[in-house]
User: What shape does this take?
Amino acid sequence: MGIGTLPDWIIAAANIAMACAAAYAAIKANSWFKDKIKNTAVDQAFILLSKFDELKLRLDLFHLDLMMKTSYHTNKYKPNSTETNTTKAVTMKDVEFDIDLINALERNLNKIHEDTAKFIRSIHNTERLGFEMKADLTEKVTNSLTQYSRNSWIHINYYKSPPAFILLTTFNPSLGDNDKTEALCTLHNELAETEKLLNRKIQNIFIFD
Assistant: This one.
């Protein structure tokens, strides 16, 4: 069996070179694609963190507004800067809330609730983008935001009650006091702690494929 002519060898060598070049190109393309996906994943992760920061700021402003326009008047909320050892008695006049102000709080909460639901859905649907928030953080963020929203609705509805009922239940909580100041302040503090966890390096927050 012959070893072939020189042109045959040249053609064979060229074919081998082309095959190697094609394999190299495929490897480089695959590497580029993976890098592209990872870079996109990192960008999307930063966008999610920015959305949380925006939502947290809105919740901070809402929380203070809610407390000052509701439970501050029933002595259940005292801002640190004005807290004193003396507590004045709550009167009927204190619990005659302006329904327009309460409705405005409710409208604001409705917008926050919608954006909260969108954000929670976002952090649970990132796998297709090549990353996931760590399970413990996902649970913490989801629970804190969901519970804050839920308790806010209950709290606002309570302060839409007739003044006589609010006054009665302020002094007799067992009769139907649905003021959620304590729960809301606890959840607000939990969100502040979560915010600190989300201010760490991104690799401590997300898992990238």
